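not sure who needs this but someone in the group chat was asking about Crp/Fnr family transcriptional regulator from Candidatus Caccousia stercoris so here u go. i didnt clean anything up, its just raw.
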Amino acid sequence: MGQTMHRDQEGNSMAQHAENPWKIFEETQPIRLYAKNQTVYSQEETAVQFYYLLSGSVKITLSSPDGGEHILRLVAPGELFGEASFFDGKMRVSSARTLEKSEIISVNRPALLQCIALRPQLAMDLMHSLAGTIRLLSAQVDALAFLRADERVERLLHGLADEEGMVRLTHEEIAGLAGLSRVTVTRVLSRLAAQGRIERGYGGLRLHKQPASKEQT
């Protein structure tokens, strides 16, 4: 079980909420500490709450009957997860597990209604968040259906890179996100490194240039 604590309820201002719409969860809900590789929720369990990641990282995965795993998403601090199944009230179609020590806030229905009563704009913010999740999943389906393996990997890397161009994922994690085998990902990364497009080193990859073609908007 993770430890639970409360964060100081300071700075409850409109400016802070405009910058971070989920600030109200920090101010009203307990924070739970999760260890590395700890399950947050499991596939096929009933969704009675959703989550807000305060610190650390979480991976959202889909498991197949034969034990295979596909990574749907990596959750970064400041993002919600598990909200889709929560709102339709059905069983979860994915699982969530921490990749490192993490601080997570869970929000159930009574708590959500309380937060919306305190800040009505929260309802619209949640709709925007759900729309973003749908857009992300649609982009993944598009990539799986129409992009070659190298295009899929390169688009993924550029989407995950930080401001310094770093992607701190293992080959296995990249493979899970791209829907490819680890062998294929290793081959693609070797080709990109030989072309000078990425630099491989301890702790991850560094991107050197933008992909040749960009997605049209």
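also The chain has two domains: 3-144, 148-207. if thats useful
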